[in-house]
From TrEMBL:
Pfam families attached to this UniProt entry: Epimerase
The protein, known as: NAD-dependent epimerase/dehydratase domain-containing protein
SUPFAM superfamilies attached to this UniProt entry: NAD(P)-binding Rossmann-fold domains
Family membership noted in the UniProt record: Belongs to the NAD(P)-dependent epimerase/dehydratase family. Dihydroflavonol-4-reductase subfamily.
InterPro entries: Epimerase_deHydtase, NAD(P)-bd_dom_sf, NAD(P)_dehydrat-like
Record keywords, A-Z: Oxidoreductase
NAD-dependent epimerase/dehydratase domain boundaries: 3-257
A Gene Ontology molecular function term of the record: oxidoreductase activity, acting on the CH-OH group of donors, NAD or NADP as acceptor
Coiled coil: none
Domain of life: Eukaryota
């Protein structure tokens, strides 16, 4: 099957690309620069030479016409749209986060409807950010599930960069569902939508990193730990999300949702293995990497990294997603160990 994967240079997308190619699918992937395109082609030189991997430069997804040409590549049946900013180095939350997320998503859907007749399914990488509701996080009566929606609006984006990011994902996902609920009358493509909604995604790095400082946002905490920042400055708070998933499971969810599970159409997939804490990361590293003991924080520094007690935090119900995907979520210890090993291989 021919698949269009946007943002192929990303942390999650690199794992999706690897799994798609391993399964024999042919992939067109978009990246922002020719330099990134060349790195991907080098990593899969054989597939690239065989025409099973094609790269296309799409410099700015915040332009409504960004994807107009790439979707015209004949034979694309499935689109996996992962490209969207996930970082907090912003000066203008609308321009830097919301526009690329929302315009990128509506732009690609419009382009498909206009000129990609073979597309039958679109998977959009959304987020737990589009599920959670900030004031409900510390309420134990809260159960976040596939049915939950973040009520955030565009007016909230100047509150904090975290809220702005959550709004970017929520508004993009809402726009995607609104589009498929009322597709343009002259649409040439008949496709359905699936969203994948992961919380914090951790795991080994498969994408090209020019330097460790360009590491994706969710893995940064492991780098900070390895660089001794937690020992020097204390273990940071685990953060409001408090739930996680392994990147290889998130990638598998995209592949299954896009290509292998017709029944996923119209569903939001809440991909999570459950709760985690920064204190638990320290414990796992201590047990598995005894040679690194000197850089680890002491037990009396763990406090802020522990989870609040269960009666002060939300619950999760993602049984529908687990069942639909038929997935055994990778356990936290394996993810932490594999992430640390991977970062060390990259020079951490
Ligand atoms: P990365 O930062 O590694 O990947 C983001 C991808 O989007 C990259 O390919 C990046 O391109 C591209 N991108 C970002 N901003 C723009 C822009 N303005 N124009 C064009 N392309 C852009 O992070 P992840 O792999 O983690 O993120 C992938 C997706 O997963 C995103 O949609 C994110 O919101 C979502 N997600 C991630 C979670 C996590 O914990 N990691 C949790 C929940 C959802 P480039 O390589 O050139 O920077």
């Amino acid at each position: 099957t021919k698949v269009l994967l946007t943002g192929g240079s990303g942390f999650i997308a690199a794992h999706i690309l690897e799994q798609l190619l391993a399964k024999g699918h042919s992939v067109v992937t978009t990246v922002r620069t020719e330099d990134k395109a060349a790195k991907i082609r080098e990593a899969y030189a054989d597939k690239s030479a065989a025409g099973e991997l094609q790269t296309v430069v799409v410099p700015d997804i915040a332009r409504l016409d960004a994807f107009d040409d790439v979707v015209k590549i004949p034979g694309i049946e499935v689109v996996l749209h992962t490209a969207s900013p996930f970082h907090f180095k912003i000066s203008d939350p609308k321009k830097d986060l919301v526009d690329p997320a929302v315009i990128g998503t509506t732009g690609i859907l419009k382009a498909i409807a206009r000129s990609a007749p073979a597309v039958r399914r679109v998977v959009v990488t959304s987020s737990f950010a589009a599920i959670l509701d900030e004031p409900k996080i510390s309420n134990p009566a809260t159960v976040f599930s596939e049915a939950s929606w973040n009520p955030v609006t565009i007016d909230d984006i100047y509150r904090s960069s975290a809220t702005a990011y959550r709004a970017s994902k929520t508004l993009a996902e809402r726009a995607a569902w609104a589009f498929v609920a009322a597709p343009p009358a002259d649409s040439v493509a008949k496709f359905d939508l699936v969203t994948v909604n992961p919380p914090m995604v951790f795991g080994p790095v498969a994408h090209h990193l020019a330097s460790l400082d360009g590491l994706n946002t969710s893995n940064e905490r492991f780098l900070d730990l390895l660089r001794g920042k937690w020992k020097a400055g204390g273990v940071p708070s685990t953060g409001a999300a408090m739930i996680w998933v392994d990147v290889r499971d998130v990638a598998a969810a995209h592949v299954r949702a896009g290509l292998e599970l017709p029944a996923a159409g119209g569903k939001r997939l809440f991909t999570t293995a459950g709760s985690y804490s920064n204190a638990a990361i320290v414990d796992i590293v201590r047990r598995n990497f005894p040679a690194d003991a000197a850089i680890l924080p002491s037990d009396d520094q763990l406090g802020p990294g522990k989870l609040p007690p269960a009666d002060q935090r939300f619950k999760v119900d993602n049984a529908a997603t687990t069942e639909l995907l038929g997935i055994d979520w990778i356990p936290f210890e394996k993810t932490v160990v594999d992430t640390i090993k991977s970062l060390k291989e990259h020079g951490a």
